[in-house]
Design brief:
The chain has helices spanning 5-19, 24-53, 62-74, 78-96, 99-118, 128-148, 156-166, 172-190, 193-215, 230-241, 271-281, and strands at residues 220-226, 245-251, 258-267, 286-291. The protein is of the alpha+beta class. The chain folds into two domains: 5-215, no CATH class; 220-291, Alpha-Beta Plaits, CATH 3.30.70.120. Strands 2-3-1-4 form a four-stranded antiparallel β-sheet, with helices on one face. A hairpin with a 6-residue loop joins strand 2 (245-251) and strand 3. Helix 4 runs antiparallel to helix 5 (99-118) and helix 10 runs antiparallel to helix 11. The longest helix has 30 residues, at 24-53. 37% of the residues are buried.
Length: 306
Amino acid sequence: MTQSSSELVNVGAKELKHGTGSSPLHRQLRELLNLVLIVLGVFSAALGLHGFLMSNNFIDGGVTGVSMLLANVTGLSLSVLLPVFNLPFIAMGYRHIGLQFAIRSTFAIGLLAVVLATVHFPDVTQDLVLSAVFGGFFIGAGIGLAIRGGAVLDGTEIAALLISKKSHLLKVGDVILGINVVIFFVAIFVLGTEEALYSILTYITAAKTLDFILYGIEQYTAILIVSEQNAAIQQKIMEELGRGVTIYKARGGKSGADQEVLYSVVTRLEIGKVKNIIQEFDPSAFVVTHPLSDVQGGMVKRTGLH
């Protein structure tokens, strides 16, 4: 399985936020919503595993993939191996993210093990491509719902976060990629080349579904604009899109001239509109965009202007 490292960090920050300054009723409702999301995530992931992957000898990435490989080799139940291999990572999460995170994750992984052991999921399809794609879809959706509930169903990224913190050369994504390359390479010898390739398709689908569940279709993107027509561009963005625009005072590195830089946060669906506005006033403007993992406060939501 694959997780969002920034979202795991946000889980710890949100625990601190919800632990102070909110009413008991608000905290209870929040925890109830967390519980519902975790339960839905568990059943979605269990459907992906039992209903699509296991009958075809496909695996996912991460700790779940390792558990599935060992279940295939040793004959042990996946419902036993999943908690055993995830518990050390939950202990790491407790130390570095928080107690509530560890409790929710223990509950989520324990419930997943129970559901896998007791609930019967029929084989949905015998088509290998459909099994790989929809298995990944339900697993990714399950992971995303669990993360939204403040828990994880797989401890891989917790380990990746800790390794990246201790290494100046490795990033979280590098560690996760390296782990999964090894897992799928081993899968070629354990399961077979075709099964390993389908498993990679499952992993990619799960990752894309996870991104959609966490960030949605309105994934926010930051956009930086340097132009001689900043005032007109700023006004048009605020009028047509209803988005806030921040103005930075800057100085040209080569010319040394003072200039203004516009900074705005829009959805990825609005990037084209912003670029059209820029082209209208200044086709030679310097524009930089990059996706954001989390945005709160300010004029992120539309102001109602059109």
